[in-house]
Design a protein that fits this description.
It is flat and about 100 Å long. It is mainly alpha-helical and 140 residues long. It is built from 5 helices and no strands. It has helices at 2-19, 26-49, 52-71, 77-112, 115-131. It has 2 domains: 1-50, no CATH class; 51-128.
């Protein structure tokens, strides 16, 4: 299933990229195509994967309902199997959510940098400027 998703993704990107109009300067054109592709990718992601957090909440709610049935001794064997399947889906959803959070953190780090590193280099720059020799006085 993942392989077909990748093929579908590649084909969708290629199709969308070729469908955008070509006009003017190549760099401006490239930037505009990337902007348009970003919007189309967001729509594709929502259609294919949906909202992971909402999906997780639904799974947890179903598990809680089955747990309530279990407490009242009204749970059948089919419900037990369904609960096991829901727990495995919850684990899979948690892995996807964790991966998404890691990707967002990495993107944020690339975009904004590490605040400790920024502080270190600004301190280093300030010290270098303070210690800089501005001139030499000869013969005084």
């Amino acid at each position: 299933m993942l392989g077909s998703r990748k093929r579908g993704f590649r084909e969708m990107v290629k199709e969308k990229w070729l469908s955008y109009p070509v006009k003017g300067n190549t760099f401006v054109n490239f930037k505009e195509k990337l902007k348009s592709l970003k919007g189309d990718l967001k729509i594709w992601n929502r259609d294919v994967f949906g909202n992971i957090q909402t999906h997780k909440k639904e799974i947890v709610q179903e598990i809680e309902e089955l747990d309530c049935k279990d407490c009242s001794d009204d749970m059948r064997e089919s419900d037990r199997l369904k609960r096991v399947e829901l727990v495995s889906r919850l684990k899979e959803t948690d892995k996807k959510l964790e991966s998404l959070i890691c990707q967002k953190a990495r993107t944020s780090w690339f975009k904004n940098g590490d605040s400790c590193t920024r502080f270190y280099y600004s301190s280093l720059r300030w010290r270098r400027l303070r210690n800089e020799v501005k001139g030499v006085e000869v013969g005084s």
